[in-house]
Amino acid sequence: MASRAGTVAQPQDLVDITALLDAYYDISPDLDDPGQRVVFGTSGHRGSSLKASFNEKHIVAITQAIVEYRAAQGVTGPLFLAKDTHALSEPAQNSALEVLAANGVQVLVDARHGYTPTPALSHAILTYNRNAGAGAPQADGIVVTPSHNPPQDGGFKYNPPHGGPADSDATGWIANRANELLENGLRGVKRIPLADAQAADTTGKFDFLSSYVDDLPSVLNLDAIRDAGVRIGADPMGGASVDYWGEIAERHHLDLTVVNPTVDPQWAFMTLDWDEKIRMDCSSPSAMASLIQRMTVGADGSTAYDIATGNDADADRHGIVTPDGGLMNPNHYLAVAIDYLYRNRSGWNPASVVGKTLVSSSIIDRVAESLGRKLVEVPVGFKWFVPGLLSGEGAFGGEESAGASFNKLDGSVWTTDKDGILLALLGSEITAVTGKSPSQLYKGLTDQFGAPVYARIDAAATREQKSALGKLSPSDVTATELAGEAITAKLTEAPGNGASIGGLKVVTENAWFAARPSGTEDVYKIYAESFKGEEHLKQVQAEAKALVDSVIA
Predict the structure, then answer these.
(1) Cβ(13)–Cβ(278) below 8 Å
(2) Quick check: is 302 catalytic?
(3) Fewer beta carbons below 10 Å: N end or C end of the chain?
(4) Cα dist from 301 to 132, 146, 151, 298, whole Å
(5) In angstroms, rounded to a whole number, what is the distance separating the alpha carbons of residues 377 and 357?
(6) What is the CA radius of gyration of the chain?
(7) What is the rounded distance in angstroms from the CA atom of residue 404 to the CA atom of residue 396?
(8) Cβ distance 273 to 6 under 8 Å?
(9) Quick one: 531 exposed, middle or buried, by C-beta within 10 A (0-12, 13-18, 19+)?
(10) Which residues of 322-339 are buried (b: 16+ CB within 10 A; e: fewer)?
């Protein structure tokens, strides 16, 4: 049968919301099954109530663990509590509030009873702590979201006072304590009824939307967008940014249309992703098919918008659609954004570095060199960019999965978590200031630096092989050539900060590959890139798989 990727979801694709919510309360995890224990990945604990991996008991245990962790760290300010539009997000937020209130934690929830993008939570934490001043009680936060994951999934993420994703030490402690509480039948978990928690003196309101939207002129040149009359189409993709885009248009007088304001926990309006699943991945041509279609050039050469953008469910990712280029590859847009920002942000630290993950495109390396800026390459995970964004020493941090953030016009911190709204609006600023689309500007970069070809594939691996891959050292790799070129670097630690990459990266003059074990499936992922074309990339991929298989066998 032909693939249905890119076509609108059908009734058989939709999750049963009633069954999903019932399972959240009714199913208890089997802790003998590793898949049903609390596990924090790079973006918190994720799972589905239907698979007993995201249920009420998980959430109350994780929340109690966070209460104990923040107390041990001396965090005594308010905790900002936010949720996205996934069906499991509201019940999980309620469960968390019951525990937080019972423990006497001051909690601030959305004043509009609405949805909150991850970057708005990060912005709120940072703004509160900056205004509180040195030595004052510091705030932190929880955002309930599985990001772009399918409708049946839930997610739960902790952001410490630095506003960004918690580091491995924090998430490891929280996960271990949560599993300990689960093993003890939740003894040690304090909890009160929801109505009492909502009415508690410690539960307050916060206007996430106004705090974020009204501060946008401090980080973007909105005047240029408005004066140029850039026509913007913004698709929230059924996510937490839905009310934000309309307010951005109204408050800042932009020619901006909210393309699809629908919020539906089944996401019945979505087009199916590459594997025929509903997934709100704004970097996927299949998931973004409806927005791409809206940008089709008409018979008269016109398009509905000068630029169109999409966000995932918690708006920490961005998708950029242009009339001439369609949906941009995230790596391509990152390169354009970096080149533009470092040439147009005179208030930034002139010595600020460019931050990227080690599986992002090497055209960024060449752009950074041309700008005279140091490149800092870190492992996968946005948490690695937090220190630089806070200090201004790393004014931009981006990763290949369409997540990035950058500092305010004056060089101070904006968010320390990925901000899809910010990067989407930047595309309009770039268009307004340069008179060219981001895809046209990328073509200029490839004329200057070469055109890389990039892809990611999966290869089968047992748990033992994945473990071996995560423990490799450069000396385990004896090969001296890759796809006809001499190997110039064998990396198991990120060159930017010396942190383990949990896998292997091999580099030549015109190509590289990186192999990392999957955290959820019996596969490892091979990221690869070549500046010598598709055929060379395929050769790199084939030799990469053979090389990795030989050293983890």
Answers:
(1) yes
(2) no
(3) N
(4) 53, 39, 37, 5
(5) 5
(6) 23
(7) 7
(8) no
(9) buried
(10) bbebebbbbbbbbbbbbb
C-alpha span between 68 and 174 (Å, rounded) = 9
Angle (CA) 67 70 72, round 5°: 105
Question: Distance (Å, rounded) from C-alpha 67 to C-alpha 539?
Answer: 51
Please choose, from the candidates 438, 445, 484, 423, the residue with its C-alpha nearest in 3D space to the C-alpha of residue 365.
445
Q: Which three-class secondary structure state does DSSP give residue 485?
A: strand
Taking the CB of residue 193, how many other CB atoms lie within 10 A of it? 11
pLDDT digits (tens, 9 = 90+) for 278-326: 999 999 999 999 999 999 888 788 899 999 999 999 999 999 999 999 9
Q: d(Cα 96, Cα 61) in Å, to the nearest integer?
A: 9
Sign of the torsion formed by the C-alpha atoms of 144, 148, 151 and 155: negative
User: Is the predicted pLDDT of residue 1 greater than 70, yes or no?
Assistant: no
Given a cut of 70, whether residue 520 has pLDDT beyond it is: no
The active-site residue, picked from 147, 361, 401, 439, is 147
pLDDT of residue 229 exceeding 90, the answer is yes
Residue 105's CB is within 10 A of a number of other CB atoms, namely 25
State the amino acid at position 250 in one-letter form: E
- Other Cβ atoms less than 10 A from the Cβ of 72: the count is 9
Report the residue count for the chain: 553
Residue 211 tokens, joined: 């705090």
- Mean pLDDT of the region 257-275: 96
Q: How many whole angstroms separate alpha carbon 83 and alpha carbon 75?
A: 21
Asked whether the predicted pLDDT for residue 328 surpasses 60, the reply is yes
List the structure tokens of 78.
Answer: 């308010």
Residue 411: left (phi > 0), alpha (psi -120 to 50), or beta?
left
CB under 8 Å to 21, separation ≥6 — which residues? 49, 87, 88, 91
DSSP state of 382: G
Alpha helices in 396-462 (DSSP H): 420-434, 438-449
Burial of residue 535 (CB within 10 Å: 0-12, 13-18, 19+) is exposed
Amino acid letter, residue 329: N
Q: Which amino acid is at 164?
A: G
Structure tokens at 292: 């791409």
Q: Among residues 467, 431, 465, 457, which one has the least CA distance to residue 526? A: 457
Please check whether residue 382 is in contact with residue 164, taking contact to mean a CB–CB distance below 8 angstroms: yes
Which tokens sit at 352? 């600020």
Identity (one letter) of the amino acid at 344?
N
Backbone angles phi, psi at 238, to 5 degrees: 75, 20
What is the pTM assigned to this prediction? Answer: 0.96
Query: Which backbone phi and psi does 112 adopt, to 5 degrees?
Result: -100, 5
Rounded to the nearest integer, the mean pLDDT of the chain is 96
Q: Is the dihedral of CA 116, 120, 125, 128 positive or negative?
A: negative
Half-sphere exposure of 140 (CA within 13 A, CB side): 22
Residue 518 tokens, joined: 């999957």
